[in-house]
Amino acid sequence: METLRNLENQNVGVKRPLRNAVVRKPLRGLENRVGNVPSKASFRSKVQIASSKENATSKLIKVHAKVKPKEILEDIKELQASLPVLESLPSVRIPDNVENIDADDGENPQLVSCYINDIYIYMRMLEARFPIKLHHLDKQPEVTGKMRAVLIDWLVQVHLRFHLLQETLYMTISIVDRFLQVEKVKRSQLQCAGVTAMFIASKYEEMYAPDISDFVYITDSTYSKSDILKMEKVILRSLDFNLSKPLPLHFLRRNSKAGNVDATVHGLAKFIMELTLPDYDMAHYLPSEIAAASLYLSLKLLADSPWSETLAYYSGYSENEILPIVKKLCKILKESETSKLQAIRVKYSSSKLFKVSTLPQLKSPLVIELASSVNN
After folding, report:
1. Running along the chain, 376 residues long, what does each successive block of 10 average in pLDDT?
2. Is residue 68 domain-resident?
């Protein structure tokens, strides 16, 4: 949903610092280094060049004069008739009890309605190919789940400070978890791994990525440019240079379109989904599961809407499948109010994000009831 994507990535009032800006200076002496161009030409050579141009122009005029517009149109029609006709029919058959949410998108080529369902099937395969294991930090000698939470809370603030896209934040956390799952990291290098992951994600997602000096500055020069570049090599090699794991945001946009929800419901689902990022016990869930459960809870709190057949089809999950995750989300919502890590709640208290973190529905009896049903 293009409008929702623009809404997510709008300016939330915090600008990226402008220090260390690179100003490109004009190249000097360029005019003196251009070869094969005579500095002076004799009058005779100028006349020869001019006459040759006139002859070429007169020939082109004669050629164009011989070609008639009707002949050109006939050639175009003949060419069109000879081209094969490709039927842009969807390859995935939609059940009769499910609404075709892409039925009106055929005239917009950017929405690729003829194979959008195939794209999401492929994304479901990709997320299963790059899983995060349950308790993936168990093999880390120094890094714990609490340290990870502190790091992510700080990265949310950095992301807001640099005014980056939402995709960049989710990809940063994905890179961090995939890296910590396979490589042992010292406690002193955890922050370096975090900023380097955001540096990589920025180059992948952003049109204008922050300069590496900005990340040195944001760490108060704790790490140098060389440290970040070395960590970048280690991370990319550990991930086999594969950064194509889908993000929860990708699935949430599709689900919001299937549910035909308004911006507030979508925004609350985003807030709930982002609250799962610092929570170590939620890291092993698939992005599509987090997205479906977040939208389910948002719909229940704001619209009291059922999980329809259309939502179940496009999300890939029935109500019974996501209900255990919804209960954990309610517990996270309840505990976030008293948590020391408040970066996400402060972020979503902005008026440009509809102040969804301050909604009274977050303290509703439904949240308290579902949160209390979670086994500690």
Report:
1. 55 44 32 35 43 52 57 72 57 87 90 91 96 96 97 97 97 98 96 98 96 96 97 98 96 97 97 98 98 98 95 97 97 96 96 95 95 85
2. no
Dihedral-angle region of residue 295 (phi above 0 means left; psi in -120 to 50 means alpha; beta otherwise): alpha
End-to-end CA separation in angstroms for the chain: 37
The label of the residue with tokens 């440019």 reads 225
Query: Has residue 298 been placed in a domain?
Result: yes
Whether residues 165 and 274 fall in one domain = no
Q: How far apart are CA 330 and CA 271, in angstroms?
A: 12
Q: Using alpha carbons only, give the angle 120, 166, 326 rounded to the nearest 5 degrees.
A: 65
CATH number of the domain enclosing 293: 1.10.472.10
- Does 289 share its domain with 263? yes
Residue 51: predicted pLDDT: 52
Range of the domain at 254: 248-373
pLDDT at 84 (0 to 100): 57
- Are the beta carbons of 267 and 354 closer than 8 angstroms? yes
**Co-location of 288 and 344 in the same domain:** yes
- Half-sphere exposure of residue 307, counting CA atoms within 13 Å on the CB side? 21
Q: In total, how many domains does the chain have?
A: 2
Predicted TM-score (pTM) of this structure:
0.78
Are 258 and 222 part of one and the same domain?
A: no
Could you tell me which of 366, 370, 360 has the C-alpha nearest to residue 337? 360
pLDDT of residue 343: 97
Number of H helices and number of E strands within the chain? 16, 0
Tokens of residue 49, six digits: 């060049």
